[in-house]
Amino acid sequence: MAEKLKLEMVTPYKRVLSEEVEEVTAPGTVGEFGVLPDHTSLLTTLKVGELSYKQGGETCHVAVNWGYVEVEDNVMTVLVETAEPADQIDVERAKAALARAEEALAKLTSEDKDSKIMEAALERAVIRVQVAGKTLH
Amino acid sequence: MASLKDIKKRIGTVKNTQQITKAMKMVSAAKLRRAQEAVIAARPYADKMADVLSSLALRVDADSHPLLAERGKGKALVVLITGDRGLCGGFNTNISKTAERFIREKSERFESYELLIVGRKGNDYLKRRKGMEITKVHENLVGTGQVSYPTGALLGQEVIGLYRSGDYDSVFLVYNAFQSVMTQVQTVTQLLPIVPKEVEEGVMVTDYIYEPNAKEVLEEILPKHVEVQIFRSLLESAASEHGARMTAMDSASKNASERIGKLTLQYNRARQASITKELLEIISGSESLKS
To answer: How far is CA A7 from the centre of its chain?
Structure first.
C-alpha cells in the first residue's frame, strides 16, 4: 500500500501546490470528504470551502472557490478557480470584504438579483477569514 | 539636392521616430514576459480540464447535454480574437484574414456565419469586407494589463447563452496561438458543440465514482470548459500581440538606424560639397584680384 498521495492543485493563473501528502479533506458539493492513499478513482465537484491536507504530521489549510477534484492512481488533482493557502491570506482584506458583503446584503431583499452574488461573496469571505485564522495554531 | 538644413531636419525626425519605436519595443518586451508566464501557468489547468472532459464524454451519451449534442446546419458564430491597438506588424490583419478565409471556404457547411469580434482592429478590417456579418464587437475587453479570468468567464457565459438560446448551431473560435516571440499560429477551433479529445486506443479509461452523479458533474464542467478555453485563447492572443509588436518595433528601430546612417552620409557629402564650393569661390576671387 502506498503511504503517500500526490496532491496537485491548479488554478487558471498558476499551479498552487504539488506535494506528497498523507491525507486530504475537501469540501465536496454533497458534503465534506476525506481522501487517503490508494483511494479509488473519483470525480466530484467542490463548493466554496476549506481544503486541508496533512503533510509530515502538520495540517495545512487552503481556502478554495468552485472547482472539482479528480482522484486517480494516487494522484489527486484539484482544479479550482481560486486557491489561497492560509499563510497567504491577507486577513485585513478578507475582513474588510466580509464587512462589505454583510453590509450590502443587509440592504438587499432575497428577490434582488444581486443578493445571490453578495451571498456568494459573503460565503467566500467567511471561509477566507476562517482559514486565515488557522495559521496561528 | 536637398539643402543642409533640410537633411538635418529629416535626421531629427527619424531619430524621434526611432526613440518611440525603441520605447515601444521595451514596453512590449516587458509585457510579453508577463503574458508569456501567464500562458504557461494557465496550460496545466486547461489541459487537465480537457483530459477530464474527454474521459467523461466517453461514459455519457453525446445527446445527454445540450453543449455536447450536434445540431443542424443553420447559423454559425465565429468568435474572433484580435487586438485593440495597431503597430504590431501583421498580427491583426493575419488573424482577421484567417477568419474571413475560414468563412468563405466553409460557406457550404452552414447556411450563414456571423462574427463576434473581440478587439477594435478586427472590426476595422472586417466591417469593410463584403459578406461579413458582424453581430457584436467587444472593444477594450482586455485593456492594457493582464488578462483576468473573470473577463474570459464572462465572455464564455455570453457565448454559451447565445448558443443555448438556439440562435446558433455551432461556435468557432479564431485566435493567434502563442508559439514563440517571432511566431504566432492562427488557430481555428470548434468551441461548441464541444468535441472531446479522442482517447487513444488501448489506453485504459478509468471508471470514476461520480459525486453527486455523472450528469451533474458534466453540467458543471462543460460550461467551465468553454470559459477556460476562451480565457486561454485571450491569454494566448495577448502574448502573441506583445510578441508581434516587439518584433515589429525591433525591425522599425533597425530601419530607422539604417535610414539615419544614409541621411548622415548624404548630409556629410552635402557639407563637403558646400565647403569645396566656397573654397573655389574664395580662390577664384583672390586669383581675379591678383591679375
So the answer is: 13
Query: Cβ A28–B49 below 8 Å, yes or no?
Result: no
Alpha carbon of B153: minimum distance to chain A alpha carbons (Å): 11
CATH of domain A5-87: 2.60.15.10
3-state secondary structure (DSSP) of residue A14: coil
Mean pLDDT of chain A: 81
What are the tens digits of pLDDT across the range A17-27? 888 899 899 88
Digit-coded pLDDT (tens) for B159-173: 999 998 888 889 999
Position A137 scores a pLDDT of: 47
The residue among A63, A73, A71 whose CA lies nearest residue A16 is A63
**Cell numbers at A27, concatenated:** 469540501
Indicate the pairing of strand B75-81 with strand B112-118. parallel
CATH value of B35-247 in 3.80.10.10, 3.40.50.620, 1.20.1260.10, 3.40.1380.10 = 3.40.1380.10
Which of B193, B206, B173, B237 lies closest to B35 in space, CA to CA?
A: B237
Give the closest of A12, A41, A77 to B207, CB-based.
A41
The answer to whether B98 and B133 are in contact (CB under 8 A) is no
- The reply to whether B88 belongs to the active site is yes
ipTM comes to 0.73
pTM recorded for the entire structure: 0.83
The answer on pLDDT for B245 being more than 90 is yes
pLDDT of residue A88: 76
Return the domain boundaries, chain B: 4-22+251-290, 35-247
